[in-house]
Amino acid sequence: MDTPLRENVPDQHHDEIHDRLLECRREFLNYFRRRLDRSEDADDAFQDFCLKVLRSTEQLDDATRTDAWLHCILRNTLIDHYRRRAARLRCAEAYRREPQPMSFDIEPMHGSELSCRCVREGLTTLRFDYAEILRRADLNEEPRSQIAEELGLTANNLGVRLHRARQALKASIKEYCPICADGRFAECDC
Questions:
Q1: pTM for this prediction
Q2: Residue 101 in contact with residue 166, Cβ under 8 Å?
């Protein structure tokens, strides 16, 4: 007979916690809004908080301590948000300090004509996906967001592929023309 009562206890806790979340929704959301600059961040943090609470309802042993338990998760969620934001800022700063890939000063491509034979020859030796990304991003100057969306890539993934394609093109051009390989296209005789 004890077994059915024990099975009902988690459901009862779950219902009480769910009700408490609904009752204090505005209070919890305002907690995040006061501490975070953007309302979108506050909404995201509040959603994370609710998910954490609902996923861990079985951890609450004493129903009389529901509020303390909720506030502990609330504080931990805010701390997690701050940590993730700090990690993103460190990553962005490290990326900003990274040397940027070499960009070619080539006029936009019209049709299939390029002003430099070395670049044209170099593009023909590249993998198709590298050549396509270089043509679209550097030669046709299409917006990166458009290219990424059409290729089904994230902006970061497109940036990585573009960097690799540029490095491959640079290595390929080096075989044809050391002047262009150094980025001095205007000095090239071709």
A1: 0.46
A2: yes
